[in-house]
C-alpha cells in the first residue's frame, strides 16, 4: 500500500471584518490507498481529504461542495486519463443560505477529514493511469457568529469564497470498472406473483454469479492463468487472447444482469419451439438478435431447477443472457457438462463461444479454484490412511493436498511454522471455499467431519510467521481418525467429483456481511424446519432498529416474513401493548454452514448480500449458551447471546420511550456494558456506523444452556429524554428460545 500527499495552501491576506491577520489553511489529500484485492478488481479511486487550520485564529469552513459532505454535490476535482479529461457525472444541488451546522469549526492546528471515491462522481471506467487534482471553491466564515445558534442563518457579510487548486497526484485503476448505471427493474409477462418472486431472487443470484466470475477472471495474476483450473476446465488451454475474450464477455454479461432491463416471459410458447421440442424438457429460450429489454422465455426445466448450483435458475439466466449478440454472442455448440468439458479440451476456440461453458464457469459447482490443479509431482494429492499419522513438510506460502474417505476427524499438529487446516467434501478447499477451517496459531488444528464423506484436506503455510528459527518451510503431522474398513478400492483424484447435494444448517448465532456494511448483523437459528432471524440494523434516520424474520427452512434455503415489533403506550403510562406488523420478506441461501447469501425486501426496497458466520474465537466454550433468550412472562424484548471460547457477545433488543424497537451491543470484556450506535439503513448509501452512547449494563447468570437469570440497569430512553435507570430488572428468569 502507498500514500501520496497533496498540499494545498490557501492564503487569505488582509483584514476582513476585523480579521487583521492572514488566514491560511492546509489541505492534505491522501492518494489511493487500496487493498491488493480491491486494486485487482478495480473497485474505484478512493481518497481521503484532510483540511487543516494552520492559522492562529478559529476558522469556520463550509462543508458544501467539498469531500467533507461525504459525497459529491459539485464538480470539485480535475481527473485526467492521458490527454483526456474525465467528465463529472455526479450531482449539482441548488441550495438556500447556509446555516451554522453547515460549517465545520477548526481551531488553530486542527484537522478535519472526508472520504470520497473519485469513481462515484466521475466517468472512471477504463483501466489505466489517472491524474487527480482538487480544484474547487472553499468557503470560509471569518466571523464567530456561526457558533452562536445552530438554527441561525449565517450572516453573509462574513463569508469569503476562495478558489483552491491542489498539486496533482497520479494513481492507477488496474482493471476495467463496469459503468455504474441506474439499475432497471425486470419486467414480467404472463408471470404469477410467486413466479415473480422466484425470478427476482434468481436475477439477484445471477448478478452475484456474474460479479464473482468477473472478479475471478480479473484478480487472477497473469502468471497463474495458464494453470487456472476453473478456467482451463471450461475454456481449455490458456492464451491471453482467449482469456481476455472471456473476461470481456463476462463484463458485458455482468452489465446486463446488474444494470439493464430484462423481460421474463413465463409462458413457454410451443408455437415458437421446434416441433420435436417439448416445453417441459426445456429450460429457456431467447432471440439472440434482441436488444434491451432482453427477453427470456422460461420453460419447465427452469422452474424445476435449484436456485443455485449446477444447471440452476441463476445459471440459466447467465446462459441465456450470454446468447444475445450485443452481449457475448454465445451459441449452443456443446450442451451439458460432459460435452462442454470435452469441447474445452478439444477445441478451446469454440469453448469460449459456448453458452453452457459460460454457465458452468459461473456456477462453479463443484468448486474449482483459479489456481493450478494439484496434479503434478510437486502438487499431487496424497491419499491418507485412517488412524495412521503422516509427517510432511511444505514450503512457505504453499498448499499441500490430501484425500481421505471414512474419517470422522482430521487433526493437524506438531507444527514448526504457521499452518492452517482446510477441509471440504467433494472438492478441493481454498482460502475462501471450505466446509471446515481451523486456524489456531499453535497447538492442534482439528475438523470434525462426516465419516461417510470423501473429503479433500488442504494444509496452507504462511511466510509472515515463523515458530522456529529455521528458514524456509516447516513440518507438521496430519492424522485422519475413523473406523477402518478393508477391501476398499484405491481412491483416485477426480478434478470434477460427481455432483452431490449436501445439506447444511446455518451455524447458530450472529452472522454479518463484511462486504456490505458494518455495525449491523443477523442472529440466525434453525429449529427443525423453522427459520428464526433477528436482523439488527438502522432505519432511514440512522437510528438502531430490529426486525424479526420467521419462516420455513429446507434444502439449504429458508424464507419467511419480516416483522417489526413496537409498543403502543397509553397516555401517562409505562405499560404498553405490543404491536407487530409485516414489513417485508427474507430469504437465506447457504453455501455451507458458515457462508451464504441473504435476500430481503423491506419497506418497498429490496437487496441481497453475502453473509458469513461471525467468528470471535477458535475455541469452544465449556458450555455453549449461544441463542436467542427472552422472558416468557414478559415477551417483546430479547437478548442475543453469541458465545465462543471465553468470549460472549450480546445484543439486547428493547424499545424507546415512544415504543420504537431499538438495540444495543455489549460483550463480557466490559462487564456487558451496552453501547448504542447509529448507521445507514439497508437500502441507504453505506456509511460507517458510529458510536452513539453508553446506555448502561446488563448481567446474565446462566443456570444451564436453556435457563438463566437476567438483570439490567440501563437507560433505554435516557439517550433521548435524559432519564436514568428506567429499565431496572433484578434476577428475572429468561429462557433460551433457540438452544
Taking strands numbered 1, 2, ... along the chain, how are they ordered across the largest sheet? 25-26-27-28-29-30-31-32
Low-pLDDT stretches = 1-42, 144-156, 375-379, 463-472, 484-501, 717-725
**Can you count the beta strands?**
40
Main sheet record: 8 strands, antiparallel, barrel
Number of contiguous helices:
10
State the end-to-end CA separation.
Answer: 45 Å
Over all CA atoms, what is the radius of gyration?
29 Å
The whole-number mean of residue pLDDT values reads: 75
Overall outline: globular
Beta percentage is 35-45%
Helix content: 10-25%
Structural class label: mainly beta
Topology of this structure?
Layout (H helix, E strand, L loop, with lengths): L4 E8 L10 E8 L5 H6 L4 E8 L5 E4 L14 E5 L2 E2 L17 E4 L4 E7 L10 E14 L17 E7 L3 E5 L13 E3 L3 H27 L9 H7 L4 H20 L2 E4 L18 E2 L8 E5 L1 H5 L8 H11 L13 H10 L1 H4 L3 H9 L17 E3 L6 E5 L4 E7 L1 E7 L3 E9 L10 E3 L6 E4 L5 E13 L7 E9 L26 E4 L8 E7 L2 E9 L5 E11 L2 E13 L6 E17 L2 E8 L2 E9 L13 E4 L7 E7 L2 E9 L5 E7 L5 E6 L11 E13 L4 E8 L3 H4 L5 E10 L3
Parallel strand pairs: 12-13, 13-15, 16-18
Antiparallel strand pairs: 1-2, 2-3, 3-8, 4-7, 4-9, 5-6, 5-9, 9-10, 9-11, 14-15, 17-24, 18-23, 19-22, 19-24, 20-21, 20-23, 25-26, 25-32, 26-27, 27-28, 28-29, 29-30, 30-31, 31-32, 33-34, 33-40, 34-35, 35-36, 37-38, 38-39, 39-40
Helix pairs in contact: 2-4, 2-6, 3-7, 3-9, 4-6, 6-9
Amino acid at each position: 500500500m502507498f500514500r501520496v500527499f497533496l498540499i494545498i495552501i490557501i492564503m487569505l491576506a488582509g483584514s476582513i471584518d476585523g480579521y487583521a491577520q492572514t488566514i491560511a489553511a492546509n489541505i492534505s489529500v491522501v492518494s489511493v490507498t487500496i487493498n491488493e484485492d480491491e486494486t485487482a478488481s478495480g473497485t474505484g479511486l478512493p481518497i481521503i481529504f484532510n483540511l487543516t487550520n494552520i492559522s492562529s485564529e478559529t476558522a469556520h469552513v463550509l462543508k458544501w461542495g467539498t469531500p467533507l459532505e461525504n459525497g459529491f454535490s459539485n464538480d470539485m476535482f480535475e481527473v485526467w486519463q492521458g490527454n483526456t479529461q474525465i467528465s463529472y457525472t455526479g450531482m449539482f444541488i441548488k441550495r438556500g443560505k447556509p446555516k451554522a451546522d453547515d460549517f465545520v469549526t477548526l481551531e488553530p492546528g486542527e484537522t478535519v477529514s472526508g472520504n470520497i471515491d473519485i469513481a462515484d462522481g466521475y466517468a472512471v471506467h477504463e483501466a489505466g493511469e489517472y491524474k487527480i487534482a482538487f480544484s474547487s471553491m472553499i468557503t470560509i466564515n471569518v466571523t464567530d457568529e456561526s457558533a452562536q445558534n445552530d438554527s441561525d442563518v449565517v450572516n453573509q457579510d462574513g463569508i469569503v469564497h476562495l478558489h483552491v487548486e491542489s498539486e496533482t497526484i497520479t494513481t492507477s485503476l488496474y482493471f476495467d470498472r463496469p459503468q455504474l448505471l441506474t439499475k432497471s427493474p425486470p419486467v414480467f409477462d404472463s408471470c404469477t406473483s410467486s413466479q415473480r418472486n422466484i425470478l427476482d431472487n434468481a436475477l439477484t443470484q445471477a448478478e452475484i454469479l456474474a460479479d464473482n466470475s468477473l472478479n475471478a477472471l480479473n484478480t487472477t495474476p497473469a502468471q497463474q492463468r495458464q494453470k487456472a483450473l476453473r478456467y482451463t476446465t471450461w475454456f481449455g488451454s490458456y492464451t491471453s487472447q482467449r482469456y481476455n475474450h472471456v473476461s470481456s464477455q463476462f463484463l458485458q454479461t455482468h452489465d446486463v444482469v446488474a444494470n439493464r432491463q430484462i423481460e421474463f416471459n413465463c409462458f413457454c410458447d410451443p408455437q415458437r419451439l421446434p416441433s420435436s421440442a417439448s416445453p417441459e424438457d426445456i429450460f429457456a429460450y431467447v432471440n439472440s438478435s434482441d436488444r434491451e429489454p432482453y427477453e427470456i422465455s422460461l420453460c419447465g426445466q427452469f422452474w424445476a431447477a435449484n436456485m443455485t448450483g449446477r444447471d440452476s435458475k441463476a445459471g440459466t439466466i447467465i446462459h441465456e443472457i450470454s446468447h444475445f449478440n450485443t452481449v457475448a454472442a454465445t451459441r449452443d455448440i456443446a450442451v451439458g457438462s460432459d460435452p462442454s468439458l470435452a469441447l474445452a479440451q478439444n477445441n478451446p476456440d469454440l469453448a469460449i463461444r459456448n453458452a453452457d461453458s459460460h454457465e458452468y464457469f459461473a456456477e462453479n459447482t463443484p468448486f474449482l479454484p483459479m489456481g493450478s490443479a494439484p496434479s503434478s509431482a510437486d502438487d499431487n494429492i496424497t491419499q491418507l490412511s485412517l488412524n495412521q499419522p503422516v509427517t510432511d513438510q511444505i514450503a512457505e506460502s504453499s498448499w499441500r493436498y490430501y484425500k481421505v474417505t471414512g474419517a470422522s476427524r482430521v487433526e493437524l499438529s506438531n507444527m514448526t511454522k504457521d499452518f492452517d487446516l482446510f477441509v471440504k467434501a467433494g472438492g478441493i478447499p481454498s482460502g475462501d471455499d471450505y466446509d471446515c477451517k481451523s486456524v489456531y496459531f499453535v497447538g492442534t488444528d482439528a475438523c470434525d467431519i462426516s465419516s461417510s464423506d470423501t473429503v479433500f484436506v488442504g494444509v496452507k503455510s504462511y511466510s509472515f510467521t515463523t515458530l522456529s528459527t529455521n528458514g524456509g518451510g516447516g513440518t507438521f503431522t496430519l492424522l485422519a481418525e475413523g473406523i477402518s474398513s478393508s477391501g476398499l478400492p484405491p481412491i483416485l483424484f477426480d478434478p470434477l467429483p460427481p455432483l452431490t447435494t449436501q445439506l447444511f444448517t446455518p451455524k447458530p448465532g450472529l452472522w454479518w456481511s463484511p462486504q456490505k456494511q458494518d455495525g449491523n448483523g443477523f442472529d440466525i437459528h434453525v429449529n427443525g424446519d423453522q427459520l428464526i432471524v433477528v436482523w439488527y440494523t438502522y432505519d432511514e434516520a440512522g437510528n438502531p432498529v430490529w426486525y424479526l424474520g420467521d419462516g420455513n427452512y429446507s434444502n439449504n434455503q429458508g424464507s419467511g416474513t419480516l416483522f417489526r415489533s413496537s409498543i403502543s403506550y397509553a397516555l401517562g403510562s409505562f405499560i404498553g401493548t405490543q404491536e407487530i406488523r409485516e414489513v417485508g420478506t427474507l430469504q437465506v441461501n447457504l453455501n455451507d454452514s458458515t457462508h451464504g447469501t441473504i435476500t430481503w425486501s423491506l419497506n418497498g426496497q429490496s437487496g441481497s448480500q453475502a453473509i458469513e458466520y461471525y467468528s470471535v474465537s477458535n475455541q469452544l466454550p465449556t458450555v455453549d449458551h449461544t441463542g436467542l433468550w427472552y422472558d416468557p412472562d414478559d415477551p417483546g424484548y430479547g437478548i442475543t447471546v453469541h458465545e465462543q471460547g471465553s468470549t460472549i457477545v450480546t445484543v439486547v433488543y428493547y424499545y424507546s420511550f415512544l415504543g420504537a424497537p431499538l438495540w444495543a451491543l455489549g460483550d463480557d470484556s466490559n462487564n456487558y456494558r451496552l453501547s448504542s450506535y447509529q448507521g445507514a439503513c439497508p437500502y441507504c448509501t453505506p456509511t460507517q456506523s458510529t458510536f452513539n452512547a453508553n446506555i448502561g449494563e446488563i448481567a446474565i447468570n446462566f443456570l444451564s444452556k436453556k435457563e438463566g437469570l437476567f438483570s439490567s440497569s440501563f437507560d433505554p430512553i435516557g439517550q433521548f429524554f435524559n432519564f436514568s435507570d428506567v429499565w431496572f430488572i433484578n434476577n428475572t428468569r429468561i429462557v433460551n428460545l433457540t438452544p
